[in-house]
Structure formats: C-alpha cells, structure tokens
Design brief:
Chain B: InterPro entries: ABC_transp_permease, BCAA_transport_permease. The complex is a heterotrimer. By secondary structure, chain A is mainly alpha-helical. Chain A has a domain of 210 residues. A two-stranded antiparallel ribbon of chain A has the order 1-4. The longest helix of chain A has 27 residues. Chain B is 73% helix and 2% strand. The longest helix of chain B has 28 residues. In chain B, strand 1 and strand 2 form a beta hairpin. Chain C is 38% helix and 26% strand. Classes of the chains: A mainly alpha, B mainly alpha, C alpha/beta. At the A-B interface, helix 5, helix 11 and helix 13 of A face helix 4, helix 9 and helix 12 of B.
C-alpha cells in the first residue's frame, strides 16, 4: 500500500510540476520520462532477472525505426503499438539465441547482435537515412488528435506512458512471476529444482524488457520527431545500464531517478566542458566501485526494506 | 594490416585468459599507443627512424603504465568480478576516449614512416614498411609465445590462470601478476598501434575496429584459451581473405558480427578450441 | 511402484559413475541410499531428478517415461530434490524462499499457505529474516521445507542431516515420518542410526553398481555389504 502510494505520488508530482516548469525543463523532463521507460525495461532484465545485456539499443531502435517508418504511411496511433511490438519481437528473437549463454558470453553476444543491428541500419541507408537518420513531419506526429510536436501534449503523453509503465512495472515485480524473476537472479539452480524453467523465465523477462524498450523508442520518435542511427549505437546500450546502476538496480523507481540525475548531470557538465563522455565514464567507475546498489538500493538497504 | 591487429588481439586474449577480464577498453589502449606515437615523433628531433625507435620503446611503456594504474585503482578493488569489470572497463573506455579528445584533439594526424622503400614485385608494388611491420609483428608474437610457453614468467601466468588460490599459496604474488598481465596486454596493443600509425593516421576514435577484430579473434580461438587465441590470431592475421572481409563494406561487417555471435552461442569453446 | 529405473548408466570420461543400475521405489516408503564415498550416490539421484542427463537406460515415474525430461519438468511432475550443499536464496527473506515453492505447486491463498508451511518446520517466527543470516541448521531446515512445500510425490534428500545437532536430527526424523505415505522419500545418508531408524528399505551402491537392496535387517546381515562398506 505504502509502495503504491509512493509511486502514485511521483506521478502526481510530475503532473503538478508541469505548471511551474520553464519551457526548457519542460521538454527535458518529458525526454527523461521516455528514457526512464527505456531504463525500466533494462531494469526488468538486468536489475530483477540478472541479465546483464549490452545490446538493448537494438530493442530501443527497433521500436524507434518501426514507428518512424510506419508513420510515413499509417496514423501514429497504429505506428506506436507497432513499434512496441517490434521491440518485444526483437528481444524475443535475440533471447532465443543469446539466452543459451550466460554471464560474460551473454554480454558479448548481445553486444554483437546490437552492433549487427546498428550496421544493418547504416547498410540500408536509402530506407533508414543511414547515419543521418530522418525527421518526422509534424503531421505524422498527431497521436489521436494530440499534436506531439507541441510542448503541452508532449509532456502529458510522456507522463501517461511513463505512468502506465511505472505502475505495470510495480505490478510485475510484486506478482508471482516477478518473484520467479528475482529467484533466477539469486539462484538459478535452486529455481530449476523448484520446477521453474530458467530459459522460459528469462525469455519472458527479456521480451517484456524489449517491450518497454520498444515503447520508449517508439514514443521518442513521435515526440521528438527524429529517428537516427545513433540511438542504435553501443552508447545507447550503455546509457540504460548507467541509469539503472545510478538509480538502483532492482528497484522500480531507480531507473527514473537514475535517468533524471544523469540527464541533468550531463546537461550541467556540458555547459562547463564538452567532455560529456568523461562524466559517463567517471560515473560508471564510481558506481561500480563505491555504490553498486545505486541510490534507491542503498536507501532500501538502510531501512526502507518495503521499497519494491 | 593483419599482423598488427593480430598483435592487438593477443593482448586482449592474454588479459581474458589469465585474468578472466573482458577488457572493453582494449581498443582505447591501442588508440593511446597511436596518439603517444604521434606525440613522441613530433617532439623528437632528429631523423624519422630515431623518433620511431624511441616511440616503439616509450609508447608501449607509457600505455602499460596507464593500464597497470587502472588495474590497481579499479579492477583490483572489484576483485576481478567478470561482470563488474566489464562495466568498469566501459567506463575506462569513455574516460580514455575523452581524455584523448581533450588533449589531442579531434583530428586524425599522420606519423611519418621511419623509412621509405618500395619493393617492386612483378605483379604489384609493395611498401617496404608494410613488410617490415609484418615481420616486426611476427617477431613480437613469437616472443609472446616463447614467454608464455618457455619462461618462468609464463609458467607463473599459466599457474595463476588455472588456479588462483593455489598459485597464491605457492608464494606467487597474484596482484603483481595481474597488474603485469594487464599492462602487458595493453602494451601489446600499443606496439601494434605504433607499428600501424605510419600507415593509418592517429585518431581518438580509432580504437573501435581493433577492439571488434580482437573480439572476433578471441572468440573464434575459444574464450580463455590462450593457445587457441594465438593460433586463431595467427591464422586470421595471415589469411588476407578474412581481413579483406573486415575492411569490405558494411554488409561484410554485419555478417562477421553475426557470425561471431553465433559462434559464441553454439560453439563457446571456439572453432579451434578443444572440448569444454 | 512410483519409480522404476532400468539399466541406468552414466560415465564421466572413462569413469563409470553409474553402471546399469536397476532401481525401484514403492509408493509411500522411506528408502535409504547408502554406500562409500565416490560410490555414485549423488550422481544417481542426479539422474533421477534430471540434474544430470541419462546416458543409457530408462526412468519411469508414476507410469510415465521421464528419462528425457528436463529437471524442472520432473519437479512439476512431483519429484522434489534438496541439495547436499545447502542451496537457498540467501538474500531473500525466509518467507519469500518458501513462497517460491508454495507458489509453484499452485496456491489459492499464497500468504496463508506459506505461513502454514513455515509453521510446519517451526520457522514462522523468522519469516521476515534474510535467509542467508539463519543459523546453519535452520538453513537446512528451510531447504527441506522448500522441498516439502512443493507437495511432492517423491522427495529426494541428499545428506539432509549433515552438520545437524542431535536434537535437530530428531526433529528431522519426525518431519520425514510425518510426510509418508503421501510422499515417498529417497534419502542419501551417512548417519547409520538415522538410516536404520527411518528406512523401510535400503539400497547399497558401490562403484556405480547396486551391491545389495532390502530391508535394514537384511542389509545389516549381508556379508558383501559388511566387507565393502560397514567396515566388516
């Protein structure tokens, strides 16, 4: 109950601040909310199920390109779910192969698949726009009458998607299946001998993770009107890992706070220096070395054990 | 340049083989070597060959020092946990790349070759320097092979690889071995880079391709099998066919990447490796 | 017969870990598996539970051929296994550990049934505790409780009393007696007092083959067993 109230409070707070936010932050927070959905998806695989993937950009990009390409000829209301499904389907396909491996091999295999996906986008330049990507026309970004190129509708749409994703995530990790996901992370052999199929559990978790990633990619394309190959590059596989590590792996709220903090950290640092990658690199090192549980993970350890 | 990239791959495989660490920053050590080569040759007075010799000594040492430092400050504290070290070396990758960008700049810069010589064979001309590179890389590989199989240092490394606690019990300073191996792996990448800068130019983003190729070699050779990697590195290094695949257009890269992923899924012991 | 194994074989390299073993379990019995170290006991129950693939031979469980079924499917058919080296979820609460087992067999009211399973082994007072912080004896008990919570038809216990104090062993014996005859119990055990006290039948493995099988009195009297194992 306490947990549900807390999550609803966050959604409420995000609804409330939109009236006070200056336009610059208005767009940024909308962006963070969409990226947080991506991070939540990453967290389902990494934080809860223990699958450390280095290839999630593939799922994000699958959603982004599916929606971005479909919206040329179909209404956004149809293109959005198409992108969501594309993310899930891509994750399912990758999972069928990659989940035969574990640990370091799983990391490298996912990295390789994502790299192949990135190169594929470059290869089919005439369709995908190659390196430069393509811009979505304003008319294409009308979602059921909402103009997503305008600040207000964009913020509310982002909040709606984020809110649904957050509550679904909460429900998932408190469900029986959520408990089995954690069980796989904690002790795979024991879980097998309790009758749970490790491969099936991980495949479902990865597919859900892909669904979230695809949703974020699809929403990003519609809201910010740009589809580009850089979103499929390794960088975009590393970023959700960073957000989740920062916010706290295996916590529902961690991905949002990680994405928010990191976004503004890079934003602030880029006004001082152009070394944004340095911030990413240092943050990764510091987190791995000194705070492997992240912000919310540490809070949970220090007393708030009810935190989901 | 096949031989050179094989050198890089051996460095990566050495680190994985002995330490079980997948060093994602390996390509950046390669890049650092190239950048260091540019600095040394541009500051060094005298004829190009003198600068080149100096570079060949100084650049690998400098890079190895950076690597040893990274091992002490970061990897050791993580207890060499495989997954945590990958995340850490990703962080390292960003830091090194950014450092190179800030200190060296975004331009690609050429380094003069130590000598100009063209061999004119009946059907094609060949740069004498390229032949020198192949020979030099071959020599270094041979040296690594001899060190690993014949010398006491190699014995210590292999003992540490097989059984860390026992090696420790026999009085081997595992920390020093690890730092040494990590430095040596990075140093090999740097040597490779020094050899190649007169042909390619030094650029802060140049680490990506050698990293990918090293991954391919290490995986095909069998994860963690040092012998397999050396064999695979030599085989792949010497077979122009595979390398031309690598430098061919994007499609070839896609296929190569997928191929490596599938090898890892279906034959994790590598194509040449023995049974697990 | 709840379980029938015929000609079970498994070699590791040149080593004959288990060779052409025939083995039957009668519904509701407590069956002990004994033998010297390295006789292949753990390998043998590994074959039954599906943790180790069968090389040759067949296993039938409650009439169905399960020889090729993966371990988790066998668990769902009712074969539960507790590890020789305690295997629980050390970072989850005791309650969550057991809930994972209760949830697997299907529960209308997960909370209440988990609590009941906790009470059965006397761990209800520690439900919120992190399982890894339990005393060793309690961790073993938790593992057995997880096996029992699956409501298995066959419960395989691999050296369950190892490292337990005498009082804990008595409690364990009472617990095992309380689950038969609904559940058949197969038990690997070194403590001969426990074996003689609990078992209806005993099978002796030696060097991967069945040396003898029968009721405790008969095994005790068997000369071959005495020379090979009981120290003759």
């Amino acid at each position: 109950m306490k947990a549900l109230a807390l999550h609803l409070a966050l959604i409420g707070a995000l609804l409330a601040v939109q009236v006070v936010l200056p336009p610059y932050h208005y767009t940024n927070v909308a962006r963070v909310m969409v990226l947080a959905v991506y991070a939540m998806g990453y967290n389902i695989a990494f934080g809860y199920t223990g699958l450390l993937s280095l290839g999630h950009a593939l799922f994000f990009a699958a959603g982004m390109y599916a929606t971005g390409l479909a919206v040329h000829s179909a209404p956004a209301l149809l293109a959005l779910p198409l992108g969501m499904l594309a993310g899930a389907a891509m994750a399912l396909a990758v999972g069928l192969l990659a989940l035969r491996t574990a640990g370091v091999a799983f990391m490298i295999v996912t990295l390789m698949f994502a790299q192949a996906g990135y190169l594929t986008i470059l290869y089919y330049g005439p369709v995908t726009g190659g390196d430069e990507g393509f811009v979505l026309a304003r008319e294409a970004r009308m979602l059921a009458g909402l103009d997503l190129s305008a600040d207000g509708p964009r913020y509310l749409t982002a909040l709606a998607i984020f809110g649904v994703a957050l509550l679904a995530n909460l429900a998932l990790v408190r469900s029986g299946f959520g408990r089995v996901m954690v069980a796989m992370r904690e002790n795979e052999e024991r879980s097998r001998m309790l009758g749970y199929d490790p491969f099936r559990t991980k495949l479902i978790a990865l597919t859900l993770s892909g669904l979230y990633s695809g949703t974020a990619g699809a929403a990003y394309a519609l809201m910010f009107g740009y589809v580009g190959a850089s979103f499929a590059a390794i960088q975009y596989s590393i970023l959700p890992l960073l957000w989740v590590l920062l916010g706290g792996a295996g916590t529902v709220l961690g991905p949002f706070f990680g994405a928010l903090l990191m976004f503004y950290l890079i934003d602030l640092s880029s006004s001082v220096t152009d070394a944004s990658n340095l911030v990413v690199g240092v943050a990764l090192l510091v987190l791995v070395l000194f705070a492997p549980k992240g912000i919310l993970g540490t809070i949970r350890e220090r007393g708030a054990r009810w935190l989901p | 340049m096949a031989a050179v990239l094989a050198l890089t791959a051996v460095g990566l495989s050495l680190v994985f083989g002995v330490m079980r660490v997948v060093n994602v920053a390996h390509g950046e050590f390669f890049m650092l070597g190239a950048v260091a080569a540019w600095f040394v040759t541009s500051w060094m007075p005298g004829p190009p060959w003198l600068g080149f010799v100096a570079t060949l000594l100084l650049a690998p040492l400098a890079v190895a020092a950076v690597a040893a430092l990274a091992d002490r400050l970061v990897l050791k504290r993580l207890n060499y946990d495989p997954e945590a070290t990958i995340v850490a070396t990703i962080g390292l990758l960003y830091i090194l790349q950014q450092a190179a960008l800030s200190l060296y700049g975004p331009d690609a810069r050429p380094v003069p070759a130590p000598f100009e010589l063209r061999l004119q064979l009946p059907w094609f001309g060949y740069s004498g320097y390229k032949l020198f590179v192949v020979a030099a890389a071959g020599l270094v590989l041979l040296a690594v092979w001899l060190i690993m199989t014949r010398s006491r240092i190699g014995l210590v490394m292999r003992a540490t690889q097989i059984d860390r606690p026992t090696a420790q019990a026999f009085g081997i300073d595992v920390d020093r071995v690890y730092a040494g191996v990590f430095a040596m792996g990075a140093g090999l990448a740097a040597i490779a880079a020094v050899l190649i800068v007169p042909i390619q130019q030094a650029h802060y983003l140049m680490g990506g391709d050698p990293l990918l190729l090293s991954f391919i070699v290490v995986i095909i050779g069998g994860l963690g099998s040092l012998r397999g990697t050396l064999v695979a590195a030599l085989l792949i290094g010497l077979s122009d066919g595979v390398i031309s695949v690598f430098y061919a257009p994007t499609l070839a890269k896609i296929l190569a990447t997928l191929f490596v992923a599938l090898v890892l899924v279906f034959r994790p012991q590598g194509l040449f490796g023995a049974k697990a | 017969m709840i379980l029938e194994a015929r000609g079970l074989t498994r070699h590791f390299g040149g080593l004959r870990a288990i060779h052409a073993v025939d083995f039957d379990l009668t519904q509701g019995e407590i069956h002990a598996l004994i033998g010297p170290n390295g006789a292949g006991k753990t390998t043998f129950v590994g074959l039954l539970s599906g943790r180790i693939p069968v090389e040759a031979g067949t296993i039938r469980f409650a009439g169905d051929d399960i020889t090729r079924l993966p371990a988790h499917r066998r668990v769902r058919l009712g074969i539960a296994y507790t590890f020789q080296i305690t295997s629980i979820y050390p970072r989850l609460s005791v309650h969550d550990n057991l809930a994972l087992a209760v949830q697997q067999r299907g529960a209308a009211d997960l909370g209440r049934e988990t609590l009941a399973a906790l009470e059965r082994v006397g761990l209800a007072g520690r439900a919120a505790q992190e399982a890894g912080t339990l005393a060793y004896g309690h961790q073993r008990l938790l593992e057995i409780a997880m096996g029992l919570a699956l409501s298995p038809r066959l419960l395989i216990l691999d050296e369950p009393t190892q490292g337990l104090a005498n009082a804990e062993i008595d409690a364990f014996k009472a617990l095992v007696r309380s689950v038969v005859p609904e559940t058949t119990v197969l038990l690997i055990e070194h403590n001969m007092d426990v074996v003689m006290d609990l078992a209806d039948r005993i099978t002796v493995l030696n060097a991967g083959e069945v040396l003898a099988s029968g009721p405790p009195a008969q095994i005790r009297a068997n000369e071959a067993v005495q020379t090979a194992y009981l120290g003759g």
